[in-house]
Each structure stands twice: as C-alpha cells, then as structure tokens.
Amino acid sequence: MSSRFHAILLFGYPGAGKGTQGDRLGSRKGFFHLATGDVFRSLDPDSEHGREFQYYAAKGLLVPDSLTMAIFRSYLYNQIAAERYQPEKEMLLLDGIPRSVEQARILQDLVEVSALLHLKASDLDVLADRIVKRAVESKREDDADTEVIHRRFRVYEEQSMPVLACYDSTKIHELDALLPMDEVTDRINGIVDPIRYRIFPMH
Predict the structure, then answer these.
(1) Angle at 27 between CA 22 and CA 29, to 5 degrees
(2) Are 122 and 178 contacting, i.e. CB atoms less than 8 angstroms apart?
(3) Under 8 Å CB-to-CB from 120, ≥6 apart: which residues?
(4) Which of 40, 126, 158, 172 is the most core-located residue (most Cβ within 10 A)?
(5) Lowest-confidence pick of 4-18, 91-105, 122-136, 172-186
(6) How many CB atoms lie within 10 A of CB 193?
(7) What residues contact 192, with CB distance under 8 A and at least 6 apart?
(8) At what angle do helices 181-199 and 18-26 cross, to 10 degrees?
(9) Residue 191 in contact with residue 115, Cβ under 8 Å?
C-alpha cells in the first residue's frame, strides 16, 4: 500500500452539491466517500471537540485547521481499522477538506490528489435556497439562518477558494453545480472512472 492515500477532492461553495455527488459516487464500488461535515456533526456534542465544532458552526466560521486535521486523521484511520475504507483498492473521495491553504499543505503528507472536482455556481441565491431547504429536511439548525449562510459564502471565498491554487491546473475539473443533479453525476463519472481504473486496474 502506498504511504499516501489516492484521493479525489470535491470542492465548491456550501450548497453546491458536494454531499449529494459524494454520496452517489461513494455508493459505487471502488470509492469511499468521507465528508468532513458529517464527521463533525457525528461528534458527541458534550465532548471537547463537539463543543468546539458547535461554536464555529453556529457562527458560520471554519473550524480551525489544527482541530479539523486532528479529527480528520483520527476518523480516517478508524475507518481503515474497521475495514470500511480499503485504501489498497478504493479511491478516497474527500468532501469538505481541505478548506484552507494550510489544510491543503498538511494534507499533502497524507493523500495524493488525483483530481479536484470544482462545482462552480454563478447564482449564490440558488445555493442559499438549497441550504435552507436542506436545513428544514434534515433538521440542521446551523444551516437555517440566511445571515449565517451568506457569511459561510464569504468565508469560502476568502479562505477556501485560494486552495485551488495549491493544485496542478491539469487536475482541476470544473463543473456547473446548477445543472440538474443527474447531469452533474454523469459528468463526474466520466472524469473519475478512468482515474480509478488507472490506479486500481485489478479492482
């Protein structure tokens, strides 16, 4: 097994469909979807890490890099130990990380990025409506406040968008997040399938 894990990154504004596309791709053989938002929300709210996450999420702010990476690394190795993620034959699909240049720097020692799927959106109001609808359906209170949503958009622009410059432009694939979900899925499959077969030809 390589010392670094083969990974594909899902990248884009909150509400761009990273979770939906990650779930769809992660349900297919040969892919393991790891969404850091789900990891954070699964934390015990009474634990130290859980309380810290709630503090930042309620304000629409990014969780600090050191805390994010510590939780991510622990969760990843727990998935391997439980044999839910098999790095010798599965592409790691990362959704929600890295969210800052520092996280991208730290991540270099852990994963080898084969592709970055950039879900772009020209109308942020559409994304905001998606997030509010999702908040109602899944009872995610941190997503229900439109002021917090737009703060998250600004945080993404200021802290996360610079991450794109950390990766080789030939590995970045831009997709229109406002297209129908099925069409976006088809385009993603067309990008990632050749990559997976090249890296894991026997699986």
Answers:
(1) 115
(2) yes
(3) 12, 16, 174, 175, 176, 177
(4) 40
(5) 122-136
(6) 14
(7) 8, 25, 31, 91, 115, 117
(8) 50
(9) yes
Please choose, from the candidates 113, 142, 144, 163, the residue with its C-alpha nearest in 3D space to the C-alpha of residue 13: 163
The CATH superfamily holding the domain 5-198 is P-loop containing nucleotide triphosphate hydrolases (3.40.50.300)
From residue 57, how far is each of 16, 64, 136, 142 by CA, in Å? 18, 11, 17, 6
Token pair 């009872």 is found at 139
User: What is the identity of the amino acid at 111?
Assistant: V
Quick: pLDDT tens for 24-78.
999 999 999 999 888 888 888 898 888 988 888 888 787 889 889 988 998 899 8
Distance, in Å, from the CA atom of 203 to the CA atom of 201, rounded to the nearest integer, reads: 6
Strand partners of residue 71: none
Evaluate whether 6 touches 114 at the Cβ level (below 8 Å): yes
